[in-house]
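Researcher: Let's try something more involved. This one mixes different molecule types, so please make sure each is placed in the same coordinate frame as the others.
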Amino acid sequence: MAKVLTSRSENYSQWYQDLVIKADLAENSAVRGSMVIKPYGYAIWEKMQAELDRMFKETGHENAYFPLFIPKSFFSKEASHVEGFAKECAVVTHYRLKNDEVNGGVMVDPDAKLEEELIVRPTSETIIWNTYKNWIQSYRDLPILINQWANVVRWEMRTRLFLRTAEFLWQEGHTAHATKQEAIDETIQMINVYADFAENFMALPVIKGTKTDNERFAGALETYTIEALMQDGKALQSGTSHFLGQNFAKAFDVKFANKEGTEDYVWATSWGVSTRLMGALIMAHSDDNGLVLPPKLAPYQVVIVPIYRNEEQLAAISEKVNEIVSKLKAKGISVRYDDKDNRKPGWKFAEYELKGVPVRIAIGPRDLENGTVEIARRDTLEKKVASIDGVDEYIENLLDEIQKNIYAKALNFRAENTVKVDTYDAFKKAIKKGGFVLAHWDGTSETEEQIKNETKATIRCLPLEYEEEEGVCIFSGKPSKRRVLFAQAY
RNA sequence: CGGGGUAUAGCACAGUCCGGUUAGUGUACCUGCUUUGGGAGCAGGGGGUCGCAGGUUCGAAUCCUGCUACCCCGACCA
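Model: All components are placed in one shared frame. Result:
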């Protein structure tokens, strides 16, 4: 097969770029740092959205929509929050253009300056808490459990398709609670929803944990994260859930009358995942032949390619294919029959491999005679001839097996690339090699900062599942009771 | 914002150093024939303000000046 992708070993980051473009997922747009998500890429995102949306609703959340623009003054209300986002905000200052009489073209009309600048939302805590203030008077108004599907803008210095773009799509949940415990429970519930989604739909094993002070969300008391390991040994933060305490309630003066009849500030959470998950999905499973999609998120799970010499043969094949298609559809399997005449079978094989379609069926004159089809699976590239009778059940089981196999492969990769180290020398070697590194840490920001400066590794999280273990910090030698998860990250 | 690079057909590039026919190659596209079980072959065809603005010259993709955009490395990145 003609190589259209740079190989992973040659240049991993080039491979990723090639893959995103060649698999028709997204491309760079005329706007710096902003991408166009193409139909095939967007179809995958829609599958993700549909599952997540279902999971949010099952846990009692409702969707709503808040404005794209946020008055500048809202950002001055929560000090640490503004500090976290100020450097990367897009600001709207004017509301009109006019013809440029001198230079031609158009110019910003200087007479159309806004009284107060508007910030294009980098996240919606401020506008939402300003709104919640009007919605909440009593404990009877609580909890508020709302999610929003939206786009946000963060003016990043350097961008990469899906992984970091100036504008991206995401969902952000914003909840308000009467008690601290209820808010904490919500925060943990949602990180569990994310982990469940990552593992069972994306086939992506993740480590749940909490962030250190340095890495915590601006304005949060606790940030829960799911961290995934990519094939190049770098970590990717794939979703976060924040316990915001009463910070935003205090900043926006959101008080309620509790059962005891006294006034109290509301407890808050926020949680989100973005189109960055597309990056995680691509990097976790794909190979040098292209994308590998888990069946549960593939826009179509099966593609059927006819092989024929003339119209008569095509007609005979199509008749058989239609039977197969209806049987598969009856089992809820999504199928695409590609009988386009302007591409040869070999071209189609390569194309669908590049696009990561989990199962490919080829059917030609030989098969018509024998009552068989050729079935190829994308994850292992294995081909097998199977009888047309019972092909629907065979494929149903095969899709299930592929989903499991992709997960098992990723889990195995992570296991092979996770090490425990006890000295700083060993730590530096392990980080250089790539992967997750479990090590003791003295709990101070200074140590974390120094390690980052010297090795580029950050503490991805303090895993929720860990064993108590006496040890000493690899950097300072001070005592530590548990290991934390280090890695270089995207 | 610091360092480096690039800008020529939809895409990928050559040509620029050393100015001179009609700006070329691959791929993609269109037409026809033969093909079709792993990205087909042959023949013919269409497509270019050579990033923008100015200058030098008989003559500029090529030399000079200014500008703009993009890419890579770094800094930055819940």
